[in-house]
Structure formats: structure tokens, C-alpha cells
Design the sequence.
């Protein structure tokens, strides 16, 4: 008995010696081990690593656009109209003499921005609706899920188009429209998680020590239902970028001539038969960016899969 | 719960969803600044007094909630209003003329998904973690990442301009009349499905044209869903292969082919059926882009035009039609699922 008490005393003093960081490390030891294991699993999947590199590459390009783009986003050269790819214009020039390569770099800012904002807002709305719905259950759950059903039954592309048309055509309104069409799937996922989590012992004990509903939802329920949300959101980032590009392709987003990927394909499509490089390279940029998110998300899903973790 | 009760419950749950859908689209489309709600009824020389009368007659100056009730009461006897973007024809008529084109396109795409997607999914599962599996995996992830509108333009460039194999767009060559048939005791002479009509009418030239025109749009539309079907088949095949009944089948000494096709595949196809069924609604929505690019005269193209000109009756009509089809195909899928897999209970 004495020895045990002694060792306990020592470990506690050791922990205290390490300071706040040390305490945090000890407290979260199991989580850190889990994360290390996840990273090990992840690095074994070449496709997922490739996806991560593609994402990092596009994020880098978007952030450093002013430094790496050879030309400005609306810089025109009327003497260089629809020139094929060359050493001065890697991807050729468009119908107004803009450098396609530079415009793709500038466009990556818009697309990534739209993607992140839409997915984050959708998660926030989904978490509120799904968390409340799953935690309280009963009539609240029934009502909220019927509302979610309505949004899920809408043909999403047409719905987004209608919202864009009603609000006016701009990139901002595309983001609003996509958030409105995207949140229901998160509400569904989080509700499903919440339903199983609220039966857990630790929720019961949180209630027993007098935790308020909002405290339990915010501190216990939502953090523990995050992992499927993360997987879903990575894949969705690709989907949102695609849909945003599609919306502005059919004319519901940025103004003609703007350096935005969907708009650039749309503007270039009139010259498809004479200057195919405008559409080809811009579309490839969209494809590769989305592929990056999908490869990464696919890899994450495998890692989170309990069958793989054994 | 009995099957009948289950279907009844689902149909009842449909009512709030449909009310919600009409409610939301109604409010979105009836609050547009700068759009004259009287447009469908106006002629070139309608006088301001006559316009005022029209507005009163159609309750256009009533509060929006009252207007919504008028809309729903019209809807209850299938009056969807007039379409301003289609020469003021009734929306129901316009939908009836455009729907067959979309139906033909969507069903062809669905067939492509099944015929190509399921086999490559099976191959991928059998050769798990070998190179065919990796190729299928990359292919299907690329499939869901491709911008459809871009893919369509590239297809047009390569297959029409460079090699001139397929026509650029439309349903038939310019100048060709839509096919009809004359069969005794059938009161109508066309279904609007050109492939079917030309077969029934025995018109080979039109059939050739209709099929050639179908190839690019349907492949384009199928591309994304193809990837989804392949992935679903792969994962459910892998799931099925780990089951005990597969081990039993193998230990009985059955050949690997029989095990895969008779035992594993039959069970693996159940989830795939669900995905295929759910896809139908998604394809209808995706048809918006494909139809716009390939000049395909379907409801997707109609919807795009209607939204661009804020023709509200048409927008509401198409949204309602697509949602109803989507909801009913979901219901059908659930029923089929329960039939295929007796372990499922209606809840």
C-alpha cells in the first residue's frame, strides 16, 4: 500500500513538473496515440497522400496568387487574343487577351473560398438542427426532420438556381444558395450520431452532475459526433466547388469576364471550336482540385472505418 | 407493420413535404423585384386598365399567403398556371411535351450505369488491391470529380469536331420530322420517346438518328453515376464475400465462379439496386446541365430558361414534377429493397 501511494505521488509531481503542456499531453494521451495511429494508416495509402498534396498545392496557389501569377486577374492584352499555349502564355490566352494560366491561379481563390465557406456554414446549421433534433427527440425531432426532408426532396441544382435567380447573380449568392441546399445532409448525419451518443453513460453522468442541455450538446454531443462529419465535409468540398462552377457556368454566378473557374469555362465555351485551350485547362483545374478533395476524403473514410482500425 | 400500412404512412408523410416544397418555391419566386406577375396574361397591346383587371382577376395584388392558397386550390385540379417563357401555354402541357425527352435521356443513362458500372464494380472487388482495382478506384474518384459541363464540351470537341462521329446536339438531324406510329386500337400516334416511336413506326433512318443523338448526352449524364454504381457494387461485393454463407458455399466445393455469381453477387446487388433507384432523381436534376449543352429539348432546359426569365409558374411546375418523381422513386426503392431482402422490416 505504501509503495503504491509513493509511486502515485511521484507521477503526479512529474506531471506537475512538465507544466501545462505536459499536463495536457498526459490528459490527452489516448487521443494522441489514436492520432498517431491514424497518421500511420494514412501514410500507407498513396492515393490519400496524393489527395492531401493536391489540396495543399491549391491552397498554396490560392494564398500566394499575387506573387506567382504572371499577369493580373483582369489584365488584358488586345494584341494577344486567343493565342495557343506558348512560353509567354503557358495555357494560351482567351478571347479578350487574358492569360488563361494566371486567371486559373486567380480563380482558385474564389473556388476554394466558396468551398470552405459553404461547407463550414452547412456544418454549423446542420449541427444546430441535427444536434437539437437528436438530443431532444420526440416532437421536436419529428418536426425538424420533416423540414429537412423537404429540403432533401428538392432537386438541388434547380433549387440553387432559383435561389440565385431570386437573390441576384453573384458569387456571394451562390454561396448562400449552396449553403441552403447543403445543410440537410449534415443535419441527418449529426442527428444519427446524436441519437446513439445520447444513450451513452457519459451523457447520463453529465446530466447527473447537473450539466445544462446546451452544455451537454456543445461539449459532449457535438465533439463526439464529428468524425463522420469530417469525412463527409472533405468529399463535399469537391462537390461544392463543382456545383458552384456549374452554377456560374449556366450564368447564375460571377459576371462575364470574371476570373472564376465556372465562368471562364462558360466564356470560353463559345470559342471551343477555335480556341479549345481556354476550356480545356480551366476544366482540368476544376477536375484536379475536386479529385484532390475526393482522394483525401476517400482515404479518411477508410481510416475512420472501424474495420480498418483493427 | 404490413406493407399496405407502410405505403400508406409514407404517402401521408408526402403531403407535408409537398406543401413545404410548393410553399418555399412560391415565396422565392413571388418576391422578385422588377418582375411583373401579370406577364403571362399580357399581350402586346394590353391597356393599363386591362392589366389592372387581369391583376384583380388573378388575385395578383392580394397578400402573398392568400395568393398561395389560390395556387394550391388550382393545383388540386392539376392547373399549374400559364408558362410565360413558352408562349403562354399551360405549364402542364409544356411539361408533357418536354418530359419524354428527359425521360428517354435519363433512362438511357441509367441503363449505361447498370451495364457498365456493375461489371467493373465486380471486377474491382474480385481483384481487390490488385491493379484492376486501383484503376477502377481512380476511375470512379475521377468520375465524381469531373465537371459535367466541361466533359460535355470536350466530348463535343473530340467526337464531333475532330472525328465527326456523333452530332453536336438536339434529338434528331435538322429537318427530320419526329417519328410517329400507326398501330390499330392504340389511340395515340407518338409517345415522345423517339427511339421507341421509330421502332414502333418501323422508321429505321429516324431510329439511327435518334440513337446517334442519344450517345453523347446520355454518356455525359451517366458518367458521375457510373462511378457511384461501380463503387457501391465493389464495396457490397467485398462485404458479401466475407459472409459465412460464402465460406459454406466454398467448403461445399462449389467452383469460384458459382460462388461469386450465384451467392455473392445476388446479395451484393441489393444495396446497388437502392443506389440505382435513388440515382434516378439525381439524374433528373443533373439533366439540367447536360440538356443545356446538348440542346436537348427536355424539362432541364425548360427549367433553365424559365429560371433565367423568372417565369414562376414554370419554375414551380418543374420543381414540383421532379420532386414528386424523386420522392416516388425513393418510396419504390424502399419497397423493392424490403422485397429483395426479407430481413428488412418496415418501420
Sequence:
Amino acid at each position: 500500500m505504501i509503495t503504491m501511494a509513493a509511486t502515485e505521488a511521484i507521477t503526479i509531481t512529474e506531471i506537475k513538473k512538465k507544466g501545462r503542456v505536459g499536463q495536457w499531453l498526459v490528459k490527452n494521451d489516448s487521443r494522441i496515440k489514436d492520432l498517431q495511429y491514424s497518421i500511420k494508416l494514412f501514410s500507407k495509402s498513396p492515393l490519400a497522400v496524393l489527395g492531401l498534396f493536391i489540396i495543399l498545392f491549391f491552397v498554396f496557389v490560392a494564398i500566394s496568387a499575387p506573387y506567382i501569377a504572371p499577369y493580373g486577374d483582369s489584365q488584358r492584352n488586345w494584341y494577344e487574343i486567343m493565342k495557343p499555349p506558348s512560353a509567354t502564355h503557358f495555357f494560351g490566352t482567351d478571347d479578350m487577351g487574358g492569360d488563361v494560366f494566371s486567371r486559373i491561379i486567380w480563380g482558385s481563390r474564389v473556388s476554394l473560398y466558396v468551398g470552405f465557406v459553404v461547407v463550414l456554414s452547412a456544418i454549423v446549421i446542420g449541427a444546430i438542427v441535427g444536434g437539437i433534433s437528436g438530443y431532444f427527440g420526440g416532437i421536436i425531432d419529428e418536426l425538424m426532420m420533416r423540414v429537412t426532408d423537404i429540403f432533401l426532396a428538392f432537386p438541388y441544382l434547380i433549387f440553387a438556381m432559383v435561389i440565385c435567380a431570386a437573390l441576384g447573380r453573384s458569387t456571394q449568392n451562390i454561396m448562400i444558395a449552396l449553403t441552403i441546399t447543403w445543410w440537410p445532409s449534415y443535419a441527418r448525419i449529426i442527428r444519427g450520431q446524436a441519437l446513439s451518443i445520447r444513450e451513452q453513460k457519459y451523457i447520463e453522468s453529465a446530466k447527473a452532475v447537473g450539466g445544462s442541455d446546451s452544455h451537454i450538446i456543445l461539449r459532449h454531443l457535438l465533439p463526439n459526433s464529428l468524425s463522420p462529419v469530417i469525412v463527409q465535409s472533405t468529399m463535399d468540398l469537391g462537390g461544392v466547388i463543382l456545383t458552384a462552377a456549374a452554377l456560374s457556368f449556366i450564368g447564375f454566378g460571377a459576371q462575364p469576364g470574371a476570373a472564376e473557374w465556372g465562368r471562364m469555362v462558360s466564356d470560353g465555351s463559345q470559342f471551343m471550336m477555335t480556341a479549345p485551350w481556354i476550356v480545356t485547362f480551366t476544366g482540368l483545374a476544376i477536375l484536379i482540385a475536386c479529385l484532390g478533395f475526393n482522394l483525401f476524403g476517400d482515404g479518411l473514410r477508410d481510416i475512420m472505418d472501424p474495420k480498418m482500425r483493427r | 407493420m404490413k406493407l399496405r400500412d407502410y405505403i400508406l404512412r409514407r404517402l401521408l408523410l408526402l403531403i407535408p413535404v409537398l406543401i413545404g416544397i410548393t410553399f418555399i418555391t412560391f415565396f422565392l419566386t413571388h418576391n422578385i423585384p422588377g418582375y411583373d406577375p401579370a406577364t403571362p396574361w399580357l399581350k402586346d397591346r394590353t391597356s393599363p386598365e386591362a392589366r389592372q383587371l387581369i391583376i384583380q382577376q388573378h388575385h395578383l395584388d392580394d397578400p402573398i399567403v392568400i395568393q398561395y392558397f389560390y395556387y394550391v386550390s388550382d393545383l388540386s385540379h392539376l392547373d399549374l398556371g400559364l408558362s410565360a417563357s413558352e408562349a403562354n401555354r399551360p405549364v402542364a402541357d409544356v411539361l408533357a411535351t418536354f418530359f419524354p425527352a428527359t425521360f428517354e435521356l435519363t433512362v438511357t443513362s441509367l441503363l449505361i450505369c447498370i451495364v457498365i458500372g456493375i461489371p467493373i464494380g465486380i471486377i474491382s472487388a474480385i481483384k481487390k488491391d490488385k491493379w484492376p482495382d486501383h484503376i477502377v478506384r481512380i476511375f470512379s474518384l475521377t468520375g465524381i470529380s469531373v465537371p459535367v459541363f466541361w466533359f460535355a464540351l470536350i466530348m463535343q470537341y473530340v467526337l464531333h469536331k475532330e472525328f465527326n462521329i456523333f452530332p453536336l446536339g438536339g434529338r434528331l438531324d435538322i429537318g427530320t420530322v419526329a417519328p410517329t406510329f400507326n398501330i390499330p386500337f392504340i389511340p395515340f400516334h407518338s409517345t415522345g420517346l423517339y427511339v421507341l416511336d421509330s421502332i414502333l413506326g418501323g422508321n429505321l433512318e429516324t431510329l439511327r438518328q435518334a440513337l446517334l443523338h442519344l450517345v453523347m448526352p446520355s454518356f455525359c449524364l451517366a458518367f458521375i453515376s457510373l462511378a457511384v454504381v461501380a463503387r457501391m457494387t465493389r464495396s457490397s461485393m467485398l462485404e458479401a464475400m466475407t459472409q459465412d454463407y460464402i465460406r459454406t458455399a466454398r467448403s461445399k466445393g462449389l467452383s469460384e465462379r458459382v460462388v461469386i455469381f450465384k451467392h455473392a453477387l445476388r446479395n451484393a446487388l441489393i444495396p446497388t439496386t437502392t443506389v440505382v433507384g435513388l440515382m434516378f432523381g439525381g439524374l433528373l436534376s443533373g439533366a439540367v446541365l447536360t440538356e443545356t449543352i446538348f440542346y436537348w429539348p427536355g424539362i432541364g432546359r425548360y427549367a433553365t430558361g424559365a429560371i433565367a426569365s423568372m417565369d414562376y409558374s414554370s419554375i414551380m411546375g418543374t420543381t414540383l414534377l421532379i420532386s414528386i418523381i424523386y420522392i416516388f422513386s425513393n418510396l419504390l426503392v424502399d419497397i423493392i429493397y424490403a422485397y429483395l431482402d426479407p430481413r428488412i422490416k418496415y418501420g
User: Anything to note?
Assistant: The radius of gyration of chain A is 25 Å. Chain A has 15 helices and no strands. The longest helix of chain A spans residues 100-136. The mean pLDDT of chain A is 86.
